Structure formats: C-alpha cells, structure tokens
Amino acid sequence: VYYETFYIFYTETNGLNNIYYIAEQKSLNKIIIFYKKINLDKYRIILYN
C-alpha cells in the first residue's frame, strides 16, 4: 500500500466535510508548500501534526 505524507497546518469544515490546508514534502531536505484545500477522506495517508 502506498501512503502519501501530508503536513497539516490548518483545518476547517464546511458542515459536511473536513477540509485541510496542507504542506507536501517533495524531497528529504526541503518542503514545498502548496496552499490548497483537499478532502483527506479521498486519500490513504499518514498524518503528521
């Protein structure tokens, strides 16, 4: 099973789903930030706070 790792820096809810603003690690020594909102229920993930 393949897992993606996301770093959550903000969460919100629209009343139906939790929506997460995330940072995605693209390499071992640098984190590239994507300011986007996704519903993490659609992914198989490992979460780190």
How large a portion of the residues is in β-strands, by DSSP E? over 45%
What is the mean pLDDT? 59
Largest sheet: 4 strands, mixed
Low-confidence stretches: 43-49
Secondary structural class: mainly beta
Shape: elongated
User: If strands are numbered along the chain, what order do they take across the biggest sheet?
Assistant: 3-2-1-4
Number of strands: 4
The DSSP helix count reads: 0
Report how far apart the termini are: 22 Å
Portion of residues in helices? under 10%
Give the C-alpha Rg.
Answer: 11 Å
Number of domain modules: 1
- List SSEs in N-to-C order: EEEE
Report on this structure.
By secondary structure, the protein is mainly beta. It has one domain. 0% of the residues lie in helices and 61% in strands. The protein contains no helices and four strands. The chain has strands at residues 4-13, 18-25, 31-38, 45-48. Strands 3-2-1-4 form a four-stranded mixed sheet, with no helix packed on it. The radius of gyration is 11 Å and the shape is elongated.
Set down the secondary structure blueprint.
Elements: E1 4-13, E2 18-25, E3 31-38, E4 45-48
Parallel strand pairs: 1-4
Antiparallel strand pairs: 1-2, 2-3
